[in-house]
Amino acid sequence: MSIGAAFQETFDFLKANWTQMLLWVGGAVVLLALLGYLMLGSTFQMMAMSAGDPSAMMGALGRIFLFAIVAAVILYAASMLIWRSGLHPGEAPNFGWALQAGPAFAFGMFVVFIAAYIVMMIVMFILALIFGAAFAGAGGFSPSAFQAGTIGGGAIAVMILFYIAVIVFFLWIVGRLSVAGPVMADRLTRNPVTGIAESWRMTGASQWTIVGFYVLVGILSLVYGFVVGLIFGGIMGAAASGGSGAGAVISMIVMALVVYVPQLLLSFAMPIGIYRAIAPRASGDVFA
Predict the structure, then answer these.
(1) Which of 180, 266, 286, 219 is nearest to 6 (CA)?
(2) Percentage, residues of the chain above pLDDT 90
(3) Which of 58, 59, 185, 265 has the smallest C-beta neighbourhood within 10 Å, fewest atoms?
(4) Cα–Cα distance for residue pair 13/188, rounded to 1 Å
(5) Long-range interactions of 166-170: CB distance < 8 A, separation 24+
(6) Residue 283 — pLDDT band, cuts 50, 70, 90?
(7) Distance set, CA 224 to CA 22, 104, 151, 207, 272 (Å)
(8) How remote is the C-alpha of 32 from its chain's centroid?
(9) What sections of 40-148 are H helices per DSSP?
(10) pLDDT for 62-91, tens place per residue?
């Protein structure tokens, strides 16, 4: 896979499916807003009023936790419908499968990342023992040692390198699991193990290219958000200084739509773009 191929497949998918993606995402957001109103209602106000009542506080937190689970089910089901409809256009939506496959995919990814976090913590503990003993024995953590050119500077450099390694490690995990969802959608399976195992196999030859693709998209997204934020920030500032509250609200809504909606759609399209770039014949020529 090349980064250029991943970009091409991603934007081909967006171009062919952006209206349907908006439909599924918009429907999920409206449904969640309705369910949030029905399930939560005045929960936050009740939490503020019952700060001294542990049972009432636990009840309110339980309702919030339940709503979070329902929201995850709906959002992941929407993502499965987006991937399935994009890979197999014209097929009737399979809501029953999506409501099962979406949460199963989310749970599988959660387990994998928890396992990766535990491994990272074990490695961190071992390295802390090794380097802590070495630097402490050499006076590396004394106040004077943190000046430039001393052993403390070396300790800081090691910590910085370690945190960079942690970021790279999790980006690598994301890259290796990037097509697990599209695999489940393409094969119409509810088994997250199938998606995760197949994603691990398929991304083996292009794992660092995928990491580079994610990093490049992240940088471009930051630049896009910064530029659009500057433009709409000026508009919102002018509206606020003019005393138009409605204008400021409208500007904020438009800014959210212009900044966050494209990035949300891009986040749905990237796994499909990678999937199509590494397995171009896996699901036929479906983006035409």
Answers:
(1) 266
(2) 30
(3) 58
(4) 19
(5) 166/120, 166/124, 168/211, 169/116, 169/120, 170/113, 170/116
(6) very low
(7) 20, 33, 41, 26, 22
(8) 18
(9) 43-49, 54-87, 95-137
(10) 777 787 888 888 888 888 999 998 888 888
* Cα–Cα distances in angstroms (integers) from residue 170 to residues 123, 144, 214, in the given order: 14, 34, 12
Give the C-alpha separation, 209 to 37, whole Å.
43
Please state, in angstroms and rounded to a whole number, the distance separating the CA atoms of residues 283 and 180: 15
- From residue 79, alpha-carbon distances to 161, 185, 240 in Å are 35, 9, 37
Q: What is the pLDDT of residue 146?
A: 46
SS3 state at 145:
helix
Measured distance CA(287)–CA(6) in Å, rounded: 14
pTM above 0.70, yes or no: yes
